[in-house]
Specification:
The chain is built from seven helices and nine strands, in the order H-E-H-E-E-H-E-E-H-E-E-H-E-H-E-H. By secondary structure, it is α+β, with helices and mostly antiparallel strands. Helix 3 packs antiparallel against helix 4 and helix 5 crosses helix 7. The radius of gyration is 24 Å and the shape is elongated.
């Protein structure tokens, strides 16, 4: 396809009634609360950083504890600080250190470098930005306390996205029609609806995940929950198709 042809393939957003997405929850809330359908109110934004603590790789047997610049110590302190900061000051947010790489990685060498993968999420932009400031300040503080230098590399950035209120109402009405229970909740995971919301009104329907497991061979959703989700999706789409057809 030529560049000109690609431009012609663009769909006019005015011709779209909306975007609906059916997905497993990927968390334990619906199963724990014994709710059939989740109506997603918003999708959390996220930030990710690669942090590097640099100290001095020295012989572990001959370097006194008081003379060390142990990069692993700074990394360990930060992992604890991340958990404490979120639990204490940012309820409803999450943060994770998902990877730690220690160099040179030997029994008898004080670690000279530690690299961490830090990610945090919130459905509220001001709180997400405040969380970013707090966690990066904690990283600088722990690096200084251990006599280390700190490198900060931004890796990923997604903004929080509120999903369309009218579509949320349509999903709720469809669930009442089908006869299933609902709960409004935030999605902590990213989805296509997060990107499509900038193009057309977007909504999401969650069905329960057994044990909250996802992206894993153990991921499972009961067949009846799949049927419930498909029925709510169909009923919502049919409800939206009527007004959309009238506009055309």
């Amino acid at each position: 396809m030529t560049e000109h042809g690609l431009a012609q393939a663009r769909r006019d957003p005015a011709t779209l009634a909306g975007y609906l997405e059916l997905h497993i929850e990927q968390g334990p809330v619906l199963e724990r609360e014994r709710i059939d359908i989740g109506i997603v109110t918003a999708i959390a934004g996220s930030r990710s950083f690669r942090l590097s603590f640099d100290g001095g790789a020295r012989h572990a047997g001959t370097t006194p504890m008081s003379a060390r610049k142990d990069a692993a110590l700074g990394a360990a302190r930060l992992v604890v600080a991340v958990e404490q900061t979120v639990v204490r000051d940012f309820p409803g947010c999450v943060a994770t250190v998902g990877d730690i790489a220690i160099e040179p990685g030997a029994f008898n060498v004080v670690p000279g470098r530690a690299q961490l993968a830090l990610e945090f999420r919130s459905p509220d932009l001001p709180r997400l930005e405040a969380l970013e400031a707090a966690l990066l300040a904690a990283a600088a503080r722990e690096a200084s306390a251990a006599g280390l230098s700190l490198g900060v590399e931004p890796v990923g950035r997604w903004e929080p996205t509120e999903l369309d209120r009218s579509l949320r109402g349509a999903i709720a009405e469809a669930a009442r029609t089908v006869g299933v229970s609902t709960l409004q909740l935030v999605s902590g995971a990213g989805h296509d609806a997060q990107a499509l919301a900038a193009v057309t009104p977007s909504g999401m329907i969650f069905v329960p995940s057994v044990g909250g497991v996802s992206h894993d061979p153990a991921e499972h959703t009961h067949w009846q929950d799949c049927v419930n989700g498909a029925n709510v999706l169909l009923t919502t789409a049919l409800a939206l198709a009527g007004p959309a057809a009238e506009r055309r």
